[in-house]
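Agenda item 2: calcium ion complex prediction
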Amino acid sequence: MQVLIVEDERRLSQALEQILKGEKIQSDVVDNGADGLDYARIGSYDLMILDVMLPKMNGFDVARQLRQEKNATPILMLTARDDVQNKVRGLDCGADDYMTKPFAAEELLARVRALTRRRGEVVLETCDFADLSLGMTTNILRCGARSVKLGFKEFEVLKLLMAGGEAITPKETLLTRVWGAESSAEDNNAEAYISFLRKKLHFLDSAVGIETVRKVGYRLEVRAR
Ligand code: CA
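Presented output:
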């Protein structure tokens, strides 16, 4: 499970990160609304924890924009105080739930569980692209009658590429999302996984290939048969 935390109060975002980490939930942290929007757009986050008062773009606008773009990532909005108007406004903008600061770790975790469970019921079981179907919980990649199980990182890389489809997925995005913002994963690392995936696509006899866009990233291409 991967959570996006959009919070400009460093102490609070660190606390959130630690609480989630204690439950083995990974999170990415950004400290302004514009970055939050960018990350959420790229992402396959299971949940977004979104502060209301943020630099560059406030939480209401971030939520509204994502919903306009049909981004269904569950949003837990943080409001500064027990402010009914803000809560209503947050829900109107597309947030799924809200939490008032300050909060206890247990309350946060209960809400995280509830929101991700709710998502679990509607989430697609497979991610499909051209002749490929990737099982979201099984990590099994199918093409016609053939199938192959992907390793954890292969799965994460391919999931992002499939979400991007024929648009370019920046290498930076892959490194950040799969290896984490603070990891020192070398570019070669991504290259290696792309190469494993290409072999598996070949084995599956898929029409889909992974094209390298030099110095930018990767995109999926569907070859004519
Ligand atoms: Ca704030």
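Discussion summary: The CA atoms of residues 60 and 90 lie 6 Å apart.
Owner for follow-up: CH.
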